[in-house]
Specification:
heterodimer; A: about 300 residues; mainly alpha; two-stranded antiparallel ribbon; B: about 290 residues; 10 helices; about 75% helix; globular
Chain lengths: ~300, ~290
Amino acid sequence: MKVQTAFVLAAAALVVLALAPLFIPDYWTGVLLGMTGYVTLATAWAMFSGPTRYVSLATVAFFGVGAYTVAVLNEAMPYPLVLLCAAGIGMALALVVGLSTLRLAGVYFVIFTFGLAELVRQLVSWWEVNVTYTMGRYVFLPFEGRHIYWQLLALAAVTLLISWAIGRSRLGLALKAVGDDETVAAHAGVDVTRIKLLLFVISATIITLVGAIQAPRWTYIEPSIVFNPTVSFMTLIMALLGGAMRLWGPLVGAVPLFLLFEWLSVSFPDHFSIILGLLFILIVFVMPNGVLARLEDLRKGGRA
Amino acid sequence: MLEHVINGLVLGGTYALVAMGLTIQYGIARIMNLSFGDTIIAACFATYVLFSSFAISPVLALLILVPAGYAFSLVIYRVIMRPLVARAPDEGALEVDSILVTFGLLFVIQGVLLIFFGGGYTSYSFLNTPVNVLGTVVAGNRLLAVVLSLLIGLALIVILYRTRWGMILRAVALSPQNAPLFGIDTDRAARTAFAIGGAMAATVGVVVSMFQTFTATAGVVFTMKALIVVILGGKGSVLGAVVAGLLLGLVETFVAAYIDPGLTLAAVYGVFLLLLLVRPNGIFGKA
């Protein structure tokens, strides 16, 4: 019964959000669009990195791959096919990264993902300069802000749904076991590597799709634009602030932080990354498990 | 050919230094420092300022900046890392926390550098006289860089393996739980190790700035390469870091010379991938 109520509420919220662009000015549709993008990114990031505690620093690598795929293919094939291609490429990249690092200790994974965005950026630049002779590409798709927003909203809903379903399934249980203690999980019969790989691929594919869907917003795309490390960083902060172990955590973190960053990047463009960094350190210090866990602690403390 | 070998060794020497600093921080203080490269870049800019504004030679700048790097890292450890160490229930939690915090620190340092120096490429001309080595011509500053790297690297190895102080550090690296039983102050050892790492970062910054152009955002690439060298050499192994650093420098120089300069990072990643498949514990790592 409780689950049903939650679903009805979520569906109602979704309808309201979907109808919003018809009533609000274009600027706010843009804000909603960006926010939905980050909610999706943070939720997808937390899907893998939350329970396993494998910190992925490569969000923008997948995001950029998605955006760039759209830039390359948008004139060659119909749009749905382009999205499918982007998802496929993201999935393949995640498989390569996952297969080579997830068998090993978490450090290898972190190190690999730390430079992955830079690696992909350099490879794409090299390819464009030496093979195709085109640096920078144009995306001409007949989309307005609200069309992109609706696509992202759908993706966000699907992502939350997947995250919810995983949390309730055997897979989610296995994942929690892996996060608590890998050795114990392995002894209990959990195929640790396969679980981690599966989750990483799902999460990376969603992130790739966010990049692909947002690509038409830029019109002009260049490796240095779509592989901007700030994206990885912001996703990470948002997921951590809300709490990466919870279904709604990333969303709770993403909404206020996105608005804050939007304001900061306008008001203090030069000091943006310093403020971002300090805020991040503060969050790790004060709320290592996120706002939701903190609130719960406070409530429990109050009752006891 | 020989020219590329020498250039590769120069580059590799600096990678070895970077990796030694990082491996000491990671091996003894158990902190994975993602802002290491940005500390290096900060030292690059500091050398640049000392040289161009105060006419202080980079060699003398070492005397100022190395202690400064030590002090800076000591403060960072005291203020930021110590509470995390105290709070972490186990090593894994500390690792995740330290990765996150230093990732934040990376953006702070980078942001500060961007405000002061902008995003452009910076360099200065110091000792740019050609020197004849074994029939090939090498710039004097590169030669000085390799000599300095060798001297400092050697000094560190001697300290670690031939002094009582070094033995204490190695004991903590080997077995942090048992070290206190022998009266070793692990907190102090961790603090010192982290600070030595910072001093190494400053050294590398000074040395690298003599022969390379640098930007405020180049720190990530340094950290990346250093991390790969650390893994390549085996976690916590100083000798491994030296060998792996030289190897990586050679690979990179040859790829840049014979294939394409745009593919150096790809080559580094290639080496890393190969290693993960063949010897996941590093060349000198123990299982």
